[in-house]
Design brief:
Helix content is 35%, strand content 13%. With 327 residues, the chain is α/β, with parallel strands linked by helices.
């Protein structure tokens, strides 16, 4: 079921550790980070932890005013790091270019956190990509690629892709990114976008010579605004909403602060310095599981072998590069 685990990276933190706990005692003053979707949910907890440790953080969000409450809270808490807000719409590559063009100076960490989940209808971008894959994957790759000089200038920079266990059953389909032929399934589309993000971190081994590492993080089960497109009947079927419409996390769900911990660990902890192309969950590097076991329903966690395949990663990298050059 698993690949060789002897080289897996481990940490002393359990699944219940919070984002601030994994950075306890770490001084991030002088370091700069960008957190996409940082105005709410897991992104907001990521921003809180990084700023509390002294990092200067840019919240990159489609609606800058959504960060007002978080900014006020950070002021009240006297966060050590400076926090600013910049507009970024990952589904709009011109918006990504504007963000990149406005960036000045080195960048120590890019946390690709923003995302959308289970859009009920197939929606395409002007360049023909299904919207979940365009937002969750392509926009983030365009952002990371555009900011590569800033990451290189930091000398020891990290890119962290927030992923999901949904990748397990949804390998990337390079032949039909816009669902022109296959029937659209909102959950499969989401899973494919998360598989693609993991493959990006594998392909980013090209950047190692620049001192840039890339890893992916599964936050686990967390109730946030990410579920806003999921209808109430589905939420009830999942067991996380009662008859009155109140969200009711199941016992194994994490709080947003716990869910953000793995991404924060990867973005800033010295415990994972130099680690690249790996997938983490519950603050540990995950076990690789065979696709056959996933299809047989024999696994409930880990990272699928299709998401770490270097050949598939290279094909996706080349395909994505062509798309971005033509967009």
């Amino acid at each position: 079921m698993a690949a060789d685990d002897t080289r897996r990276t481990t940490t002393p933190f359990t699944r219940d550790a919070t984002a601030e706990e994994v950075l306890e005692g770490i001084d991030l003053r002088g370091r700069r980070a960008v957190v996409t979707g940082g105005a709410s949910g897991l992104g907001a907890e990521t921003v809180r932890a990084l700023a509390a440790a002294g990092a200067d953080v840019t919240i990159a969000t489609r609606r800058p005013q959504a960060a007002d409450r978080l900014l006020a809270d950070l002021v009240a808490r006297s966060a050590r790091g400076r926090v600013r807000v910049a507009r970024l719409d990952l589904a709009d590559l011109s918006s990504v270019r504007r963000f990149v063009d406005a960036w000045e100076g080195p960048l120590d960490a890019l946390v690709a956190n923003a995302g959308i989940l289970a859009l009920p209808e197939r929606t395409l971008t002007p360049y023909g990509w299904e919207l979940q894959q365009a937002t969750n994957y392509l926009g983030h790759v365009a952002l990371a690629t555009g900011l590569r000089p800033a990451l290189r200038d930091a000398g020891d920079a990290r890119v962290v892709v927030v992923s999901s266990g949904a990748h397990l059953t949804a390998p990337v389909d390079l032949d039909d990114p816009g669902y022109a032929r296959a029937a659209y399934d909102p959950w499969v589309a989401y899973g494919r976008s998360k598989s693609a993000g993991i493959l990006f971190t594998v392909g980013a081994r090209r950047w190692a010579a620049d001192g840039v590492t890339a890893t992916s993080a599964n936050p686990g089960y967390v109730l946030t605004g990410l579920q806003r497109h999921v209808d109430d009947d589905t939420m009830r079927a999942l067991g996380v909403m009662d008859d009155d419409g109140t969200l009711t996390p199941l016992p194994y769900y994490k709080t947003p602060a716990q869910g953000a911990a793995t991404a924060v660990l990867l973005a800033a902890s010295p415990l994972v310095a130099g680690v690249t192309g790996r997938y983490f969950e519950d603050n540990q590097e995950a076990t690789t599981v065979r696709d056959d076991d996933v299809r047989a329903g024999a696994v409930s966690g880990g990272v699928a072998e299709h998401a770490l395949d270097p050949d598939r990663a290279d094909r996706l990298w080349q395909h994505t590069t062509r798309v971005l050059e033509d967009a």
